[in-house]
Amino acid sequence: MKAKYIVFTILLLFHMQLIMAQRSISGSVRDSEGDGLIGATIHVEGTQIGTTAGIDGSFSLEVPSEESVLVITYIGFDTKRVQVGDQTNFDIILQENIELLNEVVVVGYGEVKKSDLTGSVGSVDPEQIQKLATVDIGRAIQGKVAGVQVTTNSGAPGSGTSIRVRGIGSFSNSNPLYVVDGFLTGDISNISPNDIENIEILKDASATAIYGSRGANGVVIVTTKQGLPTGVQVEFNSYYGTQTAWRTIDLLDAQGYAKTYLDLKGGQLSDIESEDLRSWIQQTLSGNNDGTDWQDEVLQNAPIQSYDVSVRGGFKKLRYSIGGTYFKQDGIVVNSYGKRSQANIQLEFNATKKLKLSGGIKYSLNENTVYNQGTYSSVLGTAIRKDPVNPIRDPITGNWDRTNLTDIENPARLAYISQFRVQESERIQPTFGLSYEISRSLTFKSNVTWDNRDIVGNFLTPVYTTVESKNLDENGLPIINPQETNTTEELQVQTNNLNVLQNSNTLSYDKTINAHSINAVLGFEIYQSDASNVTEQIFADSTGVSDPYRERAFNLMSYFARAVYSYDSKYLVTATIRRDGSSKFPEENRWGTFPSFSVGWNVDRESFFPETKVITGMKIRTGWGEVGNQEPIQPYAFYSVLSPGWQYAFDNNTPYQGYAPTFIPSENITWEVSRMTNFGLDFYFLDNKLSLTTEYYIKDTKDLLVDSRFVPAPVFAGAQAPTSNAGSMTNKGLEITLDFRQEIESFTFNVGGNISFIDNEVTAIGAADNIQGAAYEPKTQIPATRTVVGGEFGAFYGLKSQGIFQSQEEIDAHGAQPRAMPGDVKWLDHNGDGEITVQDAVLLGSPIPDFTYGFYLNAGFKNFDFSASFMGSQGNEIANIMTYYYEGSDVIENNLLKSRVENAWTGPGSSNTVPRLTESITQNDWFSDRFIEDGSFLRLRNIQLGYTLPDQITNKVKLTSVRFYLSADNLLTFTDYSGFDPEVGLAFNGDPFGNGVDLGNYPQARTIIFGTNIKF
Questions:
Q1: How far apart are CA 357 and CA 318, in angstroms?
Q2: How many domains does the chain have?
Q3: pLDDT tens digit sequence for 135-165
Q4: Nearest Cα to 782, choosing from 930, 618, 623?
Q5: What share of the chain is helix, strand, coil (3-state, %, to 5)?
Q6: CA of 934: how far to CAs of 454, 800, 874, 937, in Å?
Q7: Between 417 and 811, residue with greater pLDDT
Q8: Are residues 107 and 89 in the same domain?
Q9: Is residue 790 part of a domain?
Q10: For 686-820, where are the E strands, in sequence order?
Q11: How far apart are CA 896 and CA 252, in angstroms?
């Protein structure tokens, strides 16, 4: 018995000694810039003792003894080991590892180690996105990924961008698919840049085939920020700034216009037919009329502001993320504006060790004026064209003045009316998901998302009166004639609704056995879309009329699988297959199967690879895949659809309203299909500080839809011809990406860039000789673009000038322009028939650039940081249709460029490029190379200087970090283009055949902002 007490006492003393040996330690884990690494793992080597860093990267832990070694790990950073010793407080700094930083890449329906990646995937640093003063993610990624061309179609508030991944993918729709937290969508306007965790862009078919018919034009995967395991982090971002027009057009002022007009009349005021115009010109020349600078009247300095707050945290089994954004932008065109409010909440609950539930909701409300851009009658279009001698308002009545020279609208009145053209978009998107871990290697996931969008446009035409003064009375005063009067308010209401329901189910397998690693996923998905719209006309007298209610719906069902195999991290194989069934197609063509495969070789893992810091990594990749495209296809295309508005007469010839088929059904319509082959090389140099990626691809697309507009139907058909799969196209390209990072004590440095070359060729268009785009020049109606077999998509065609006729003898010798006069443009008689017609149009250029590029610089020294990003385009042309007006020959019609007047032909030898000024109708303004300009440009997209307050200051007020910054967008633009902005996207009607056509588009603004970032 006594022996038992002795043993018990010894064990108790030993146990007490162990307890007394344990020590309490605390500290923080931070990166090289001093930011806390929330979720970093700290564990005692050789034990089960460990914890994760909470808010600010702080942690506390009980360790066995002074000899204990702490092992600190965090994804994307080098692992660090620290012996406890006699310390009780630790300040641990982890260093970024370039290779590890991108160790996991988000791909379709899962993640893949970057070392195992065999497809073409581009990544965007979210910190670079958040530096720009924009809520449009497309603008934020401009120039940042090779092979991804982002074009800002307009600088108007609320306008979007067009994104093309590896060129034009279709004759009608080349937009990529967006995937936000697993939800497939065509619009990401409800996502705040501050909520983004990362962005991956899938470019080749081996990567996009997992999305089948939705991935033909590339896939942009957006992952938003989620909750934290412990603690709470509050972040507040705000900025306020001003926007200005970075360029105006150098037109004639009132004096210049009056002198030019009078010169055309031989200096005789009496030869001016309109007494009123004679009076205005006389007053202008005598200094009694300053005229109107219409650009100055409609352009303004405009404020821009944004406020964003997020709260992320977690406790026990629950993680949460809550955020909200308010953004307001007044446009640089008077009375244009845009507002956006966003809110979101994301929850994640660990119900059991194996079952995880998630849910959330995103809400956004957008409001913006609808600017009538890209037409001759827009605010800017008329500001360029309007003669400068007329006032804004009639000096006698005070009503809006309307010129008595032409029918050009008063730009100030158009700007006034634009504030009553408002569109409001409301979007709500709830989600629910679950994840169940069947085993350590097998996981089942299911997600359901509902997306509801309501877009309402209210277009009010208010009461107004314009006046026109044509003649003078006996006292010399203008006789006022009402020219246009609107005495009744009219409201047009356009209502659009879109409902989308998606359910995705996946079974994922991830297993490593010795040198063999396999990652696989099986999935089933359904996607339902239902869209409707109606337009109503409402008048002040309570009467109204409605257009028919229209509804379009389609369903998509999909099965898919992917397997990623790796042997010893050397040899990599990825295989994917997806089978889609779409209700857009007739039953016999409803299903499509889209396979892909790719292989990779990590050469640096081989024993023969030299161990040197010069070349530290090398991978060879290649892949092939096939993807479909159903986006250009409208629901019910294979049905014969009846439309209202047709009249029929019976018996006594009284007309009755009825219905009739408007197009012949496309009974054989099927998927557009793209086949892409990709070759890639990845290199790492200088201990992974320098990375280089080069890729070459060939993309062949067949069965492209050729619109019924370009396939004439027989006259007896009584309807449009069916849309057919008659087109094909090839894109070939080379992409190069370079990135270098260096850290020397308190100085960090990162520089890099990308360049993308592309060659586009149309290989088939069906039975038509060519596909003609819209005509924008009003005299001859020569189409601005043509698409022909063997040429580029949407290339510019027009007359080719050969100089200026200097004499009548030269005109006679030319022979094809008998009505020309010296000083007129000499045109190339391309077909040699002895006359100049539309048939003489030749290839003038292409809106597709030879190459696009972007480069950046990021640097930091102690608490200061600096960044600059550039983007550009080279070798593309722009059809500047506005030159028809401000470089025209007929000065009566429009105002003119100063250089047009100063350099105009005035006699033999005076000019061989700029024709004479005349009142006569000539061929000088026919659509030609005079409209085509070099659209190449280099733009300083953003430059920013920031300062983060020292920790000793922020700690006193219990803040994690406080950063202030000064930023500028579009500060510098280098270009030879003469229009408002060289960044020209689609024409005003969104016609893909009108790419690169400038009709006086709303330009981008130069923006200067001051911002703050505060973390609690």
A1: 10
A2: 3
A3: 788 888 888 999 999 888 788 898 878 889 9
A4: 930
A5: 15, 50, 35
A6: 41, 16, 9, 9
A7: 811
A8: no
A9: no
A10: 690-706, 724-744, 747-765, 771-772, 785-787, 795-798, 801-804
A11: 6
Q: Is residue 618 part of a domain?
A: no
Q: Of 579, 429, 558, 444, nearest to 501 (Cα)?
A: 429
Exposed / middle / buried, residue 810 (Cβ in 10 Å: 0-12, 13-18, 19+): middle
Residues 181 and 254 in one domain: no
Q: Which helix (H) or strand (E) holds 954?
A: helix 951-954
Name residue 1005's amino acid: A
Sign of CA dihedral 395, 396, 398, 400: negative
E strand or H helix at 164: strand 161-165
d(Cα 773, Cα 989) in Å, to the nearest integer?
12
Stated length of the chain: 1016
216 and 244 in a single domain? The answer is no
Amino acid at 297: E
Tally of CB atoms within 10 A around 886: 22
Give per-residue pLDDT as tens, 186-231.
Answer: 888 888 888 888 899 999 998 999 998 888 899 999 989 888 888 8
Q: Which helix (H) or strand (E) holds 516?
A: strand 516-539
Q: Strand, coil or helix: what is 805? A: coil
Give the β-pairing of 997-998 and 961-975: unpaired
Q: Are residues 70 and 112 in the same domain?
A: no
pLDDT in tens, 612-660: 878 989 999 999 999 988 887 888 777 777 666 666 666 666 776 777 7
In the chain, count H helices and then E strands: 14, 53
* Beta carbons within 10 angstroms of residue 858's beta carbon: 20
Note whether 117 and 48 are same-domain residues: no
CATH of the domain at 9: 2.60.40.1120
Structural domain including 405 reads 231-420+462-477
Q: What average pLDDT score do residues 874-903 get?
A: 83
Q: Would you say residue 206 lies in a domain?
A: yes
Q: Identify the domain boundary among 200, 215, 230.
A: 230
Single-letter code of the amino acid located at 447: N
User: CA 973, 979, 985, 986: dihedral to nearest 10 degrees?
Assistant: 170
* Cα–Cα distance for residue pair 889/873, rounded to 1 Å: 32
Q: Are residues 327 and 380 in the same domain?
A: yes
Q: DSSP assignment, residue 136?
A: -
Q: How far is CA 825 from the centre of its chain?
A: 40
Closest CA to 559 of 581, 575, 576, 579: 579
Question: CB within 8 A of 654, min separation 6: which ones?
Answer: none
Q: What is the pLDDT of the chain when averaged over all its residues?
A: 85
Q: Is 850 within a domain?
A: no
Helix (H, G, I), strand (E, B) or coil at 186: coil
Cβ–Cβ under 8 Å, residues 123 and 102: yes
Q: In sequence order, which residues have a C-beta less than 8 Å from that of residue 914 and are 6 or more positions away? A: 804, 900, 903, 904, 905
Helical residues (DSSP H) of 375-499, grouped into ranges:
379-385, 411-418
Residue with tokens 């065509």: 186
C-alpha–C-alpha distance, residues 155 and 877, integer Å: 20
What's the CA gap between 664 and 31, in Å, rounded?
A: 64
